[in-house]
Design a protein that fits this description.
By secondary structure, the protein is α+β, with helices and mostly antiparallel strands. Helix content is 30%, strand content 18%. A hairpin with a 4-residue loop joins strand 4 and strand 5. The longest helix is centred in the middle third of the chain and has 13 residues. It is globular and about 50 Å long.
Length: 139
Amino acid sequence: MLMIEKTNRQSVKYLLREHGIAPTQQRIQIADFLFSKQQHVSADQILSHVQIGHPPVSKATVYNTLGLFANKGLLREVIIDPNKVFYDTNTEHHHHFYNTDTSTLTDVKDGDITINNLPTLPSGTNFQCVDVVIKVRNQ
């Protein structure tokens, strides 16, 4: 899991370079926010945050940067539905609860889910992982 305690420009630049990402101003702003703590955030939440007190960052830049970070292993994409994607700074394999009333994503404790009896895989494929999102609502 990636997290930069007390983020600063140098540590963020190092993290990006270490993953083969050129540290542009916009990427540094986004990474500084993302990796300051473990969190599940949407692109819109990130966009709102990086606009506060910083030079403008376009929505396209945020989405492109998040895609790049996910492809380079810095983030996990958690797709709730085609219109709801969260970016998880915890890149270790784990499962989630999604609260449909509050639109929040939280981690399921490690070991609380056991997956058994997977079907036979299609020919020419290898097992990668099983991601479970349990949708809940408030009482």
